[in-house]
Structures are given as structure tokens and as C-alpha cells.
Amino acid sequence: MIFENTRAFAQQLDSQDTLHHYRDEFYFPKVNDKDVIYFTGNSLGLQPKRTKAYIDEIMNDWANLAVEGHFYAEKPWWDYQERFAEPLSKIVGAKPLEVTVMNTLTVNLHLLMVSFYRPTKSRFKIICEEKAFPSDQYMFQSQVDFHGLKPEEVIVEVKRREGEHNIRTEDVIAKINEVGDELALVLIGGVNYYTGQVFDMKTITAAGHQVGSYVGWDLAHAAGNIKLELHDWNVDFAAWCSYKYMNSGPGNASGCFVHEKHHNTALPRFAGWWGHNKERRFKMEPAFDPIQGADGWQISNLPVLSLAPYLASVEMFAEIGMDALIEKRDRITAYLTFILGEIDKEVSSSFEIITPSNPAERASQLSVFLHGEGRSLFDYLMKNGVITDWREPNVIRLAPVPLYCSFEDMYNFGQILKRGILEK
């Protein structure tokens, strides 16, 4: 499609967008009495309007039923998480038994590493990407310390080539083969939080397995954003947060995937009451008998007030389907790329998009170096109704989330960006 940098053209794209009405399903913050242009769904998604009804339902059941709500609420609390299995499995490309919801992201990664990071004298190394999200880095370091090993001898980072912003798949494969028989675990972010690069998870997973390693993925920026086929890719495990692209609210519950091939193995795990055989849970038996499937990795009674907003969101995803989301995601991201290019021609500064240009290697994020600009431009954008994200030294991250961003938003952003540069 040949794009145009005009309001009329952006409005025409919105009129053709089959998802455009979902924009009305969300609350937008306001600046200067106008809805903001919201580019930070990669940090915290907007609140769906339907969320409140899901929370109110639990509050009413708690008021009217108290403890009996565990069994007699409209959505009984004791098996509340089972409602996620079908819709979540479609979002991440899994079988329903392979997914569950519990805890928060880094907690779940720690718990999954109990099962999948079992260092031996000869096989003990972990491969991750350079500039992984800091929480992942801290997790790796503390896990290695816990096992009495030295992080500098265990953690192997795959680095970017000199002068490049993204990591090449062939370099990941080469590092896996280089570490070889010493490799215990590959654990990488499926979408890099800083650059927005989407990793080739299928190829990397196969390479890790080829040398005898487990392979897991941190899908914080991937779930609800890209096409995932975790089961078919033979991924061992994965975890993701729900408050970014899936709009479940700040710090909310995490999803987990454990491939079915591990459900009946002797893998160790930290156990708790809620992972015990559901039909025998209230017999208070002393020996742990895990639920079949990913639910068997649960530990504690689930916080249903926290799960309610997530359920509201995954049911919206079920209505839409990932294919429709991805179709709009690719078009609106391409239009934003075009707008940046057009504004670049009209100002003295220059913009360098460090996110891969190949649609297969990017999702709903463009990370942009603002050459010749500094923090003052970011501040201008924020004061003029563009909610975006600043990363040192001078990068802004723009996430045109297809559920609630419009093509006219992209046009308006370009005009505000241009004024912010010309008026300084």
C-alpha cells in the first residue's frame, strides 16, 4: 500500500479497520482535555471498560456468599483459573493443559528454573541475550548464586555485532553450539524490551535441544503481541506478564507454559496446596500429588480479584483472534514507520529506527534514536498528549497497540513531533 501523510488518509485507514470499534472499549487518560496518543502499551496496557464488571462480580459474590463463593459463585473461585486455559492456549499456541495463570512474571521464572535449571558438574551454563531486561539478569545471577556457582563462569550473553542494534539468529546458534555440552539452559526474551526485536524462537529452541539443553522464553513483550506456537516449536517452558499487551492492570498475574512432554516426568518443582490433585485437595493429604498439566506447578490459593481483569482481557482476545490483531499490528506499525520517515524529511534532526525493518522480526514497537534531540523533546511530547517511553541515551519506544491505537493517532503524533522539534 502507498501511504500518505494526511489526516484524510489516516481517517480512511481507520474506516477500513475492522478492529477500530475496540478503541471504544478502553479508557484513555486525558491531557488538555483530549484523549492521549498512547504508545506505552508495552509497559502498561490501557484499562478495558469491561474490566470493572468482572471485578464487581467477585466483590458481590464475596459480600453475599463469603467463603461459599469458592464453590457457589457464578464463576467459582476454586477453579477460576481454569477459565483461562482455552483462550490463553490460543494466544500462545499451546494445548489447554500446557498453560496456567499464577503469581507474577519473575516469580514464575524462578519457579520454572527450579524444574529446568539443574546444573551438573559438566552441564551448568545459561545462555541469555545481551541487555536482557534487568529483572531477568537479577534472576539469573541469584539462581546461579543459589547453586553455589559463579555468574561470570555460568552466564553467557549473546552479543550484538559491532555497530549493530540487534542480535543475529546465526550468532545465537553459533553461541549455543560453542557452549555445547556445557549448556544447561537457554532463556531469552522472545521480544527484546529495548529494541523490539522478535527472536526466531522456533530455530533457537531447536538449536538448544540439539546440544541437549532446555530452552525457555520470557514472553513479557511477546504474549498478546506476536504469533506464538509454543507447543509446535517444542518449547520446554515459558512465562509472561499480563499487564502489557493484554491489559490486565499494573503488576497483575503471570501466565505460564509447560510443554506436555514434561507433565509426567520426575522434574523437581516447588509444591503447594493449589497444585495438588484437585479432586482430593480438601482431603488434606500429606503427600503431594500434582494436578496433570501446567496447573500442577501452582503453589498458592489464587488471587481471584487479580485474575478477574486478566479474564476480561483474554475473553476480548478470544473474540478478536490473534490473526486479526497481527494483521492490524503490521499495518499500523508500517504506517507509523512511514510517518516517522516523512517527518524526518521536514526537520533538521534525524530518526534512526533500531527495531528490525523486517515485519517478521518486529511486532508492536518501534524504538527510535532521536539524533540531534534530547530529553526536552520527550517532555514536549508528554505535555502535548503523547504518552511514550524514554530510554537513555536518547531513545523513545513507541508501541502502536492495535487494540486501541488508531491510524489518525499516528498522523497526529507526527504533527506533534514536528512541532516539538521546530518550536524548540
Walk me through this protein's architecture.
With 424 residues, the chain is of the alpha/beta class. Helix content is 36%, strand content 14%. It contains 13 helices and 15 strands. The protein has a seven-stranded mixed β-sheet with strand order 4-10-9-8-7-5-6, with helices on both faces. A four-stranded antiparallel β-sheet has the order 11-12-15-14, covered by helices on one side. Helix 11 runs parallel beside helix 13. The longest helix has 25 residues, at 322-346. It is globular.
How is this fold's topology laid out?
Blueprint: H1 7-16, E1 30-31, E2 34-35, E3 37-38, H2 51-65, H3 69-72, H4 85-92, E4 99-102, H5 105-116, E5 125-129, H6 134-146, H7 151-154, E6 155-158, H8 169-179, E7 183-189, H9 201-210, E8 214-218, E9 237-241, E10 254-258, H10 304-320, H11 322-346, E11 350-353, E12 366-371, H12 375-383, E13 386-387, E14 389-391, E15 395-398, H13 407-422
Parallel strand pairs: 3-13, 5-6, 5-7, 7-8, 8-9
Antiparallel strand pairs: 1-2, 4-10, 9-10, 11-12, 12-15, 14-15
Catalytic activity: 3-hydroxy-L-kynurenine + H2O = 3-hydroxyanthranilate + L-alanine + H(+); L-kynurenine + H2O = anthranilate + L-alanine + H(+)
Cofactor: pyridoxal 5'-phosphate
Pathway: Amino-acid degradation; L-kynurenine degradation; L-alanine and anthranilate from L-kynurenine: step 1/1; Cofactor biosynthesis; NAD(+) biosynthesis; quinolinate from L-kynurenine: step 2/3
